[in-house]
Design a protein that fits this description.
heterodimer; A: alpha+beta; four-stranded antiparallel β-sheet; about 50% helix; B: alpha+beta; two-stranded antiparallel ribbon; 12 helices; 16 strands; about 20% strand
């Protein structure tokens, strides 16, 4: 710390070069921040999914329905605390592009299983009392300008009504919030009973069940017991923890993690070269000065540390500014893309990794120039040997 | 000396001394290589996916689904409706009836190759009728044989066989309680059909409890223009409420969302990286000018003009960027072109197998981007070189 002023002065010795290097580093960390957010959004909240929640789907695939009669049987399975069910509706609002998800659910049990869904008490009561009512997430409501009390038409792509109609109308009874960290709230929920009576086909079938186990430690055993119950029946099940389910689904998009690592690898390799080159120049043109420092009594070690400190400082300033910019950009983007890519934010874990990369890049970029500075002998350096 | 000869002489001198600035020059070259490489790699995914979707369809094939359905998975048609479609005007006829195939599209869960038995992938399983292959017109069995009617046999598309486990001829696969025998592999012009598994629709219906219903009818049209005739006839028929779409349009619409998504990430990503590379190039070129200060000042003192000196710096920058661009493009082409992956197509909720396509257009765009980086990186340093005050510069060193 004693030499902070010296490091600072050296840093600005060649303003253009330092600023350009800083900007390269800054761009690299903006990319790092943005890509981390993207990668996290693609993991579909796998990291934050609850370990005590299980998902039961049809063994063959998620699109195969399960009979509603399983609801009672799953609830009666030892170790199960609570169960709810949901369906995929797959409709759109006004235009085909506006395909935010809608789910017909059993309202009371669904709200019990998903406590992260925050809904004002009076709106909750209104929804439970209204057969054709629906609640929507705040980000979705803002996107389409919906307010409590609106009646909105949703075009069905799968579920025609008994009369052949394809437009389902819902009263918006409430607007709920789910934190972006928990997957965001860009979806609509409505009553299964209304759905089941009005749809033209598929009666008494649901898409999947979500259940909570009494003891988290029993999750695996409970899952096995449920699947065992329905083995060799026409609709066999596959039960897994919410986290495993989310992970396996996210992996279907492809190895997003690998792509992101590949891009970031190229980016960081490049800034390593830029920063390394800058430090090499900085040391080379300063050889006489470094020799003077040594003459004044600076040890080899402190000269070595000075150069490294300078290298780390450049990367630190650029990195911190870059992450701050990325943070601001993601905040703005998240609003704009919430319907397509809910839950876009920079995870805390990425901030830790950014710090690690800052130190690593700074160290590696400065290492060889610093060693060179350390090896300098006063006589040779002052003798004009270059 | 003419301006051009001056410029050529200074540029030549400048380039010959590049070797002395190896380190700094390499930074600019590799920076640009990284930008062009990442750009071409990311966007070749979009190009490959689009190619797969676009080469799947035929102009002379129509897909008929329940009105309002956005994809086959959402649709439903009764046996009677299927018959009306097959007998409609505009549908080509073979020796034994109309060239139509009523089909079911379901999804089965298969592990990805090399990813362990717990991995899960939504693989499409399609039930087709006798004319299913003839309607499409581009289907060939490359290994084994076609499934036999009425038996629990499947043929796997080439892409599906490559990506998912247990689809070689002779393998047996279990979906739920039914067991299926894999009997062959087919190709279909490199299109999205090659991501699918095919079987006899009459076997698939009971296995998936679909009664006597279907999801779509594919028909071969008498000619590509016959679509309007078929559409008008079905529109006018009160017994039926369906959408008729040309197969090429159907697949093009499906590819749009993902292609747009990749592009909307790929371009901003590349632009950001390019900005970073411009800073790197500026750094390199400024240091190149600094290293040549005495040389430039001497030339100016000898009577060389300011602009040839600026041009020489710009040419150096452009050349370095071009070399970087070529390196990046070449590496991407060698590593990624034809690299096969699969992803979830949101429109059909099922896996599509496709290969990265590093197209000439992408390579050209990449090289143009490299030159733009070179231009931006060389402009200001070039100006500085031109404006060096001769006397102070000569005194400096």
């Amino acid at each position: 710390m004693r030499y902070a002023y010296l490091v600072w002065k050296n840093l600005w010795r060649r303003k253009t070069r330092t600023i350009l290097t800083l900007l390269s580093v800054l761009v690299a960390f903006v990319l790092f921040g943005l890509l981390s957010a993207l990668q996290y959004a693609f993991s579909l909240g796998a990291d934050v999914a609850n370990a005590d929640r299980l998902v039961t789907i049809h063994r063959v695939s998620l699109i195969q329905p399960l009979p509603i009669s399983y609801w009672q049987r799953i609830r009666a399975t030892p170790g199960v605390a609570d169960v709810t069910h949901a369906n995929w509706f797959g409709g759109y609002y006004q235009e085909w592009r506006n395909q935010a998800p809608q789910f017909p659910v059993d309202a009371e049990s669904y709200l019990r299983i998903y406590p992260e869904l925050r809904l004002p008490r009076e709106q909750r009561e209104a929804w439970l009392a209204n057969r054709t009512g629906a609640i929507v997430g705040r980000s979705l409501a803002e996107q389409f300008g919906w307010k409590v009390g609106d009646r909105i038409p949703i075009q069905a792509t799968i579920w025609t009504q008994k009369g052949g109609g394809r437009v389902w109308e819902f009263d918006i009874d409430g607007i709920f919030d789910v934190d972006a960290e928990r997957g965001g709230d860009a979806y609509l929920l409505f009553h299964y009973d209304y759905f089941n009576e009005a749809r033209a086909f598929g009666e008494d079938q649901v898409g999947w069940f979500v259940l909570r186990v009494a003891e988290e430690a029993d999750a695996t055993a409970v899952a096995a017991a449920i699947d065992q119950q329905f083995a060799n029946s026409p609709a066999e099940t596959k039960t897994s923890t919410e986290r495993a389910f989310a992970e396996s689904f996210a992996r279907q998009f492809g190895d997003i993690g690998l792509i992101v690592s590949g891009v970031l690898g190229a980016v960081f390799f490049t800034i390593l070269l830029v920063a390394g080159n800058t430090m090499a120049h900085a040391v080379r043109e300063r050889i006489p000065e470094l020799a003077v420092l040594k003459t004044l009594g600076f040890t080899d070690g402190s000269v070595f540390a000075l150069v490294l400190a300078e290298s780390i400082s450049i990367v630190l300033i650029g990195g911190v500014l870059g992450m701050a910019l990325a943070w601001a950009a993601v905040g703005g983007l998240a609003q704009a893309v919430s319907a397509y890519l809910p839950g876009l934010f920079i995870p805390g874990e990425a901030l830790g990794r950014a710090l690690l990369y800052i130190v690593l890049v700074g160290l590696v970029a400065g290492l060889f120039p610093a060693l060179q500075a350390r090896r300098l002998t006063i006589i040779e350096a002052l003798g004009g040997h270059r | 000396m003419s301006w051009f000869r001056q410029a050529a002489a200074v540029t030549g001198m400048n380039l010959r001394s590049l070797g002395q600035r190896r380190g700094a020059s390499a930074v600019a070259v590799l920076g640009v290589a990284a930008v062009v490489g990442v750009f071409a790699a990311v966007l070749s995914m979009a190009a490959g996916f689009q190619h797969t979707m676009n080469s799947a369809g035929s102009e002379a094939v129509a897909v008929v689904m329940r009105a309002g359905s956005t994809a086959e998975l959402n649709s439903g048609l009764s046996n009677e409706q299927v018959r009306i479609v097959a007998d409609a005007p505009g549908v080509a006829r073979g020796e034994d009836g109309p060239l139509a195939s009523a089909e079911l599209y379901v999804i089965v869960d298969l592990p990805r190759k090399g990813a362990g038995p717990d991995s899960s992938s939504n693989v499409p399983l399609r039930g087709i009728q006798q004319h299913g292959a003839a309607v499409r017109g581009n289907v060939t069995i490359t290994d084994g044989r076609m499934f036999a009617p009425g038996r629990a046999e499947i043929v796997a598309g080439r892409g599906a066989r490559g990506q998912f486990a247990g689809l070689d001829p002779g393998d047996r696969v279990r979906f739920g309680q039914a067991e299926w025998q894999v009997v062959g592999t087919f190709e279909a012009g490199g299109g999205v059909s090659e991501s699918e598994l095919w079987t006899d629709v009459r076997v698939l219906q009971p296995a998936y409890r679909r009664g006597n219903t279907f999801q779509s009818v594919r028909v071969r049209l008498e000619s590509p223009e016959a679509l309007a005739q078929l559409d008008a006839a079905l529109e006018a028929d009160p017994r039926i409420d369906v959408d008729v779409e040309r197969e090429t349009d159907y697949y093009a619409a499906q590819s749009e969302a993902l292609t747009r998504f990749i592009k909307s990430i790929g371009y901003p990503l590349s632009i950001l990286m390019a900005i970073g590379a411009v800073f790197g190039a500026l750094n390199t070129m400024y240091s190149s000018v600094a290293a040549r200060t005495r040389e430039i000042a001497t030339l100016r003192a000898l009577g060389f003009g300011a602009s040839p000196v600026a041009v020489s710096t710009l040419v150096e920058s452009l050349l370095l960027a071009l070399i970087g661009g070529i390196i990046g493009a070449a590496i991407t082409w060698v590593v990624f072109n034809g690299y096969t992956v699969s992803t979830l197509n949101g429109a059909t909720f099922s896996q599509v197998v496709f290969a990265f396509a590093v197209t000439p257009a992408l390579l050209a765009q990449g090289l143009v981007a490299a030159l733009v980086i070179g231009l931006l990186g060389g402009l200001l340093p070039g100006l500085r070189a031109a404006r060096l005050p001769v006397v102070t510069a000569l005194r400096e060193l």
